[in-house]
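S1.2 Input.
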Amino acid sequence: MRTHTIFDIRSHWQDQDQKFVDIVFGENSNTIAARSLQDALRKLDISGTLYLGYPVLSTADAKVFVDALLVSRSHGLIAFDLSSHVEPHPSDEQIADITERQNQICLLIFRKVLLR
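S1.3 Output.
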């Protein structure tokens, strides 16, 4: 695991043969789910930057936290919802809540990218 400034990350991306995942830590980034994601991504053959726990999106009412965002040249932008409060066999109401949250995250990311 390496941590770099944005300028270092860009220079590393020029070398397509080198595989690594840089991790940038934000709020709530030291959870069991976040550590498990870090471990899983280190084992994969991908390059990119993983942003953990950043309020990168906002609505008129509040900031929307995305548990993790992976930015990769080969895979694009991947949002991870590391909901730790989900039961092993979620109810229909829990599934609806998760679906609504993930749809909101997707919409806000799309808007942010589209408006750039």
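S1.4 Remarks. Helices lie at 6-13, 32-43, 92-114.
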